[in-house]
Design goal:
This protein is mainly alpha-helical. Helix content is 50%, strand content 0%. The protein has one domain: Non-ribosomal Peptide Synthetase Peptidyl Carrier Protein, Chain A, CATH 1.10.1200.
């Protein structure tokens, strides 16, 4: 499973929305009302576990969560640097 597909699955689970609601252009932070601070923390935990990343040290910011594509790129870079 590629990173974006897995991320879409995680977002679907965290936000209790169908996976079809998400694509690369889907905006997240500030655009999706149910993507609040609690959802963000849960998603970070899921990303950390699913992709074997230490998100505390990953250096993310609000731009990281702009869209599914920006979050996918962040995960790709973090995995490459791990």
């Amino acid at each position: 499973m590629d990173i974006q597909t897995k991320l879409t699955e995680l977002l679907s689970n965290v936000l209790s929305r169908p996976a079809t609601d998400f694509n690369a252009d889907t905006r997240l932070l500030g655009e999706m009302p149910d993507f609040d601070s609690m959802a963000l923390m849960l998603l970070l935990t899921e990303v950390s576990q699913s992709f074997s990343l230490e998100v505390q040290d990953a250096g993310f910011d609000s731009e990281t969560f702009y869209s599914v594509a920006t979050l996918t790129d962040f995960i790709k870079k973090a995995k490459a640097n791990a």
